[in-house]
Design brief:
The complex is a heterodimer of chains A (188) and B (87). Chain A has 188 residues and is mainly α. Chain A is built from nine helices and no strands. Chain B contains six helices and no strands. Classes of the chains: A mainly alpha (188), B mainly alpha (87). Chain A binds chain B through residues 1, 4-5, 8-9, 12, 17, 20-21, 23-25, 28, 38, 41-42, 45-46, 49-50, 94-95, 98, 101-102, 106-108, 111-112, 114-116, 119-120, 123, 135, 137-139, 141, 143-144, 159, 162-163, 166, 169-170, and chain B through 13, 17-18, 21, 23, 44-45, 47-49, 51-53, 55-57, 59-66, 68-70, 72-73, 76-78, 80, 82-84, 86-87.
Chain lengths: 188, 87
């Protein structure tokens, strides 16, 4: 008995715990609150440990952990609604920023001046389903198929959400860069 | 080995992120790549978007789980009675 339990603990420590930072980052972006992210991560890891026998060795343990995290968040935490303004993602025009900057900064040099905190704040202003899709892709580097599995939607939906989320975020960061004077607006 | 099918700017733009994310089949990838070799404007758009995605990765991965949280999780798992009983 003790030996089986030790085996599981060792397997969990070597396979699951290395993904703790990824679990924590998604928890922060979903909840928008450090204390809540702590609780959410702890609960996720404990659930994962208790159901370790359901995890199929060799499959993507990170996607599995993030799925548990997302379910836990939606079922137990989402009720407390996030504060703050949300970007309107309904009217996104593809490649708007490139068209704006192609004459003054076609290589996107202005991005380099935008710091981490400002990027995270802009991500936090995306609507829930767009924020989680973008974080799973651009922060945690999951494939479209893995994101579809974690979020429970078809791959086509992942693609369209990712396109709109990235373009909306880019517009917001561009507006911020204009405001800060990192780039000059095009006179019309 | 036949030459990739010709695609236009709209078709290339529709596959932009799939191309940059490595989500295309080899044939579809080759079609986009061939278009980028012929079209200076699309080449610039793809380069711009590639810079943007690299920037997002670089700016969002620094956060780590805090030490107190790691400790809490280790302790919980080590002394987890529920799961010891369920074995």
């Amino acid at each position: 008995m003790a030996a089986a339990s030790d085996d599981r603990r060792t397997a969990f420590e070597t396979e699951a715990l290395p993904h703790l930072d990824a679990v924590y980052r998604l928890a922060l972006r979903l909840s928008g609150d450090e204390a809540q992210a702590d609780d959410l991560v702890q609960e996720t890891m404990l659930k994962a440990y208790r159901s370790w026998h359901q995890y199929k060795s060799g499959t993507n343990v990170r996607a599995w952990l993030l799925t548990i995290l997302r379910h836990t968040f939606i079922n137990e935490y989402r009720k407390a609604k996030r504060a703050g303004p949300t970007v309107d993602i309904g009217e996104i025009e593809g490649y708007y920023v490139f068209h704006e900057v192609q004459e003054v900064d076609p290589e996107g040099e202005f991005f380099k001046q935008i710091v981490d905190d400002e990027v995270l704040r802009a991500i936090d202003s995306l609507p829930d389903e767009f924020r989680e899709t973008l974080v799973l892709s651009d922060v945690e580097q999951l494939t479209y198929a893995e994101i579809a599995e974690v979020t429970g939607v078809p791959v086509g939906t992942v693609k369209s959400r990712l396109f709109r989320a990235r373009q909306a975020l880019q517009q917001r960061l561009y507006d911020y860069a204009l405001e800060m004077g990192y780039i000059k607006g095009v006179k019309r | 080995m036949s030459a990739p099918r010709k695609i236009d700017c709209q078709a290339a733009a529709d596959r932009l992120y799939e191309y940059l994310d490595g989500e295309l089949t080899p044939d579809a990838y080759d079609e986009v790549r061939a278009h980028l070799e012929d079209c200076a404007l699309c080449f610039k758009v793809f380069g711009f978007e590639n810079t943007y995605l690299a920037f997002l990765r670089a700016r969002t991965r620094a956060q780590k789980a805090p030490e107190h949280l790691k400790k809490r999780i280790f302790e919980h798992i080590l002394f987890d009675q529920d799961s010891a009983e369920s074995q």
